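Late entry, protoporphyrin IX containing FE complex.
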Amino acid sequence: MPALTRWFLRSALISFILALLLGLVIAARAPLNLEFPASAFSPVFFHLFMVGWVAQLIFGVVFWMFPKYSREQPRGSEALGWATFWLLNLGLALRLVGEPAQVLAPSRLWGWLLAASALLQWLAGMIFVINTWGRVKER
Amino acid sequence: MPRLSVWYIRAALVYLLLGFTFGGLLLFHKGVPLHPTLWRLLPAHIEFVFFGWTVQLILGMAFWILPRFAKPPVRGNEPLAWAAFIAINAGILLLAAASFLPGSGWLILAGRAAETMGVIAFALHAWPRVRAS
Ligand code: HEM
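Prediction complete; structure with ligand written out below:
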């Protein structure tokens, strides 16, 4: 398994655990009478699960196993692959902090953090598509 | 990778592009307001990233790697899997259109019905291929 795939899969597993831990806290609020603003955190829970875990697992496996792009570049551009990894994870990390913060105590700082998070994740998605498109082919 | 998988997975990538773009606009807007009507993108965002991207990627992979048969057609009932592709994409497009049109209850019903028929068609295709190679 290539190094980039290992990073994707490990980061996916960490996101999975983080998502479930956050889910636990959200679930514990009612029975334990916690003062926890669950609705500020539920989008983060959702996206840690679906972007951090599911999409990232897919990204890693696709990079590893899809048909070769060319003899010289069997996995397309490694650099674009790494760019996807860092943009996605940085973007997700900013969302993890910025989204609850912006809901609970809106400020320009948190707002722009969220905007940056949006741009980073969007770029990650676009770059993944560009780098993968040519590997989706017959044979 | 067989031709139908190419279709499923390319469609998945196109929906990843659209779904991340809508999601990115929403998240940006949540931090730095752009335009109040942007929130109308939310149902389309959810439809694109779930059915459009995640589900179609999985179906494309399944059509590709599930065990094949010794005699042709080696991938079993291919027309069913093609029908599933068409129905699912019609459903996604109907649901996306519905999220921008007011009073579109029937459109939503039609979209969900198309997706459901597509999923049933795919299940019927895949069922006999799920076996000990
Ligand atoms: C596989 C990818 C994704 C999936 C399955 C997904 C799914 C969802 C779902 C189910 C919701 C509704 C959650 C709720 O109402 O609480 C949602 C909301 C949202 N998504 Fe995504 N999403 C994905 C990727 C993204 C990305 C990449 C972004 C941004 C760059 C994004 C931004 C948003 C925003 C801003 C909301 C609204 C949050 C709110 O209610 O305040 N999503 N998404």
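The mean pLDDT of chain B is 97. Will revisit in the morning.
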